[in-house]
Amino acid sequence: MGQDEHIAPCPIFAAATTFREVRKGLTITMDKQAFLDTVEADHAAHIALLQKFIQAPSPNPPGDTADAAGVLSDYLVQQGVPVETISP
Q1: pLDDT tens digit string along 14-46?
Q2: Per-residue model confidence (pLDDT) at position 79
Q3: pTM of the predicted model, to two decimals?
Q4: Closest by Cα among 5, 85, 88 to 45
Q5: How far is CA 64 from CA 39, 44, 51, 67, 71, in A?
Q6: How many of the other CB atoms lie within 10 Å of CB of 75?
Q7: Cα(1)–Cα(12) distance, rounded to whole angstroms?
Q8: Residue ranges of the domains in the chain?
């Protein structure tokens, strides 16, 4: 995955007119179209992240989601987003 990956879009963001991104201590504000263009440019990376997340074991019961959470945690850390695991 590339260093400039972004989180995949959701319907809530599609209705927004601006999007604020916090990365490595900086806040970036972009309009809706710029956000959607950025998301589309990283389409393959988003698919790869979601595939990796879905493939991570998260059996329930017992509700052990550590591996799945680790996939998202690793991704966020690569994006410069601080992560704190509350419960193992």
Answers
A1: 444 455 555 556 666 778 888 888 888 888 998
A2: 80
A3: 0.59
A4: 5
A5: 30, 28, 19, 8, 14
A6: 19
A7: 25
A8: 11-78
Six-digit token pair at 71? 């996939």
Biggest alpha carbon distance in the chain? 42
At residue 7 the predicted structure's pLDDT band, cuts being 50, 70 and 90, is very low
Angle at CA 59, nearest 5°, toward 88 and 9? Answer: 80
Please answer whether residues 35 and 13 qualify as being in contact, where contact means their C-beta atoms are separated by less than 8 angstroms: yes
What are the residue ranges of helices labelled H in 1-88? Answer: 11-15, 32-41, 43-55, 66-78
Say if residue 57 is preceded by a cis peptide, omega within 30 of 0.
Answer: no
Alpha-carbon dihedral 54, 58, 59, 61, rounded to 10 degrees: -130
Q: CA 5 to CA 57: how far, in whole Å?
A: 23
